[in-house]
């Protein structure tokens, strides 16, 4: 027979088991499936899947006292989301619900995902293409002697087949150039990603030497900076980078071949504002996270072109292949229990470009004024949707989730307008304005100014 003490211990143990089972049942009851919320996009679905996986496990760990204070705060955030879903699906009040509509809950899921990191990839391709086109401008100037530089890589020759400097016995074989660039634009938001406004600045300077009348080799240094502000005060991202380039151009009569190789190192810094629930003046959750990382990139360009002149009218046509292969290092955010650990990313772009330019020479007392108009057609072949993998930094289960960015535009064009002033002794000043056409939900304008000298 059992003693009274043994019977008491059995009753206590049985009660603990019952309480544990009840706690598990209650935890399951409040964990409605976030993935069942109607109308979720890809980013929101991936986030919902991660939260739905994490939260029940964290509820168990929280009940046993195994969570740190920051991990517990993360659990409270995910519990709010799943109980909001529970309230919507079961039409009954839940203690920790945020009281959101289905649209509001979808927006909250968007806010707790790091989809803004896509802007880093956009900054990579934009800054690299700026450096490549600046180099293309310089090489055209070298071939023609009197030429227009433009960020589209377009130029012209008004000397009938002589090749400018190559046709001048007194030209210097050593030359320098410096180009400054400023760009501004915006991308509208979509169902998957927030829109943003951006400003970009850059500087390219180089030194080159003519090994012969046909072959010129050069070296250039570049600096780029871009600043993007995400719509609805959702945050901002800054990109700073330095690059080193080698370039060469070879001209035979009116036909030329040019090539460039560029290697760059870049720093990325960003802030995400996580605001959802409540009212605009008193949000249920209002936090900010920040992150910074580094990356490198390799860019290349190969072009074939043709220059022709009829009296004062100049014509230049070309075809170019230019590509970018970039890596962004993994990084950890800080500042909130909702901070993310974002895995490393790869960005690839390969563009086929065809373009042409018309120009006209106007004689002036100081030299020549050279207005022009040009267009370049870009065809992107590799800038597909990228996968971004992340996990909540303070998630004890280490549950990672992946979402895809939107695909880039497969084709667009750049319209160029500008003028160059050609002075004595191989000196030249220029200004150029580029406008991007044919990109969906994107506006972009770039102003470039620069100078070239012979030494």
From TrEMBL:
Domain Autotransporter: 169-455
InterPro entries: Autotransporte_beta, Autotransporte_beta_dom_sf, OM_autotransptr_brl_dom
Highest taxon listed in the record's lineage: Bacteria
Protein name: Autotransporter domain-containing protein
